[in-house]
Design goal:
By secondary structure, this protein is mainly α. It has eleven helices and no strands. It is found in: Membrane.
């Protein structure tokens, strides 16, 4: 009987672990699918050879207006999530913390969407491999990362790989490369500033509350460049009738992607998303080559392979650092528990001595 009970407990435990693992894989699969869909959908809308609506600021504004509306409905009407209360989001905090992040997010989205007009999906994914390099470099600049020669060598290897991939690109366009590199720089700065302006102040925002605060701000920052860059061109193409199904489903995919990020990071970790992102990049490169018929050269793949190894090593180092931090935290908790037990034992011993006296 004892064995049966133990076997049942072990079976229940393994079943619970298996369920968690399967759920984690489901979250990863949903995030990869939605991220993949948004990238390909944006490429389809913006590319002159496809849907031919080359207005990246307008598309980004449609996304931000849609996400703002849904976020307000979820927070204020349906009350699905609560706003942060400790500390509360005051006007002063919003001005000093959220507005700079919103401005950087607007620039990042504008430039990254603009790059789809000039570059292939596969080459854009290769250029995005520079994100760890940008985040680390800006982190060192803002003193959020410690400069290490080993880390810098890894960043140089990633950069070298991307440079080789760029050298082998069949449809190299300097404007597109400049736009994508600017998007990477703005996004990396935004990620570092989130740590400095929000996380360090104890403000924790999930993707819904992030959209609630950031999306309207981002929309406002896009109005000025839109008025000067795209509004005159849109007036010139006054006969264009937008397809509400295409733009509606595209915006819905963009919003769903933010929810998928919430599930993936909340139920697993940000590192899991980074690793899943590497898988997504390879899938996009394969899709770009096989379906969209973009040219992917052997030099492209060789260069990206070098960058991929550098990014994989970067994620490995991050994982080891997280494990070490978790082990240190557990050891500290164990020391605290041992200390409290010793204090209790000493207290009991003192009381016993007093009673005997």
């Amino acid at each position: 009987m004892g064995r049966d009970g133990g076997g049942g407990g072990a079976g229940g435990m393994s079943e619970s672990v298996l369920r968690k693992v399967l759920l984690s894989y489901c979250y990863v699969a949903v995030w990869i699918f939605l991220s993949f869909s948004v990238i390909v959908y944006n490429k389809y809308i913006l590319d002159p050879k496809m849907y031919n609506w080359p207005f990246p600021i307008s598309l980004t504004m449609v996304h931000m207006a849609f996400c703002s509306s849904l976020a307000v409905a979820l927070v204020r009407v349906l009350r699905v999530v609560d706003l942060p209360t400790s500390p509360a989001m005051t006007p002063q905090l919003y001005t000093s913390s959220v507005i700079p992040i919103g401005a950087l997010y607007a620039m990042s989205l504008w430039f990254s969407n603009s790059a789809y007009i000039y570059l292939s999906v596969s080459f854009i994914q290769m250029l995005k491999a520079l994100m760890p390099v940008a985040v680390y470099s800006i982190g060192v600049l803002f003193k959020k990362e410690t400069f290490r020669s080993s880390s810098m060598l890894n960043m140089l290897s990633i950069s070298f790989g991307v440079a080789i991939a760029a050298y082998g690109e069949a449809r190299f366009d300097l404007r597109g490369v400049a736009l994508q590199l600017a998007a990477v720089a703005f996004e990396a700065t935004r990620l570092v500033l989130i740590q400095i302006l929000l996380t360090s102040k104890g403000i924790s925002l999930n993707p819904i509350t992030s959209l609630y605060y950031v999306a309207p701000c981002c929309l406002c920052f896009l109005v000025v460049p839109w008025a000067f860059v795209e509004l005159p061109r849109l007036r010139a193409v006054g006969t264009f009738q937008p397809d509400f199904f295409i733009f509606g489903t595209n915006s819905l995919c963009a919003f769903a992607l933010n929810l998928a990020v919430f599930l993936l990071v909340g139920k697993t970790s940000a590192l899991t998303m980074n690793v899943a992102g590497v898988v997504k990049d390879w899938l996009l490169i394969a899709f770009s080559w096989s379906v969209i018929r973009d040219t992917v050269t052997p030099i492209n793949l060789f260069g990206y392979g070098i960058a991929f190894l550098g990014v994989a090593y970067y994620n490995h180092v991050k994982l080891q650092a997280l494990k070490a931090k978790e082990a240190q935290k557990k050891a500290s908790q164990a020391d605290e528990e041992a200390g409290s037990l010793l204090q209790e034992r000493d207290g009991h011993g003192d009381r016993k001595s007093d009673n005997q006296a």
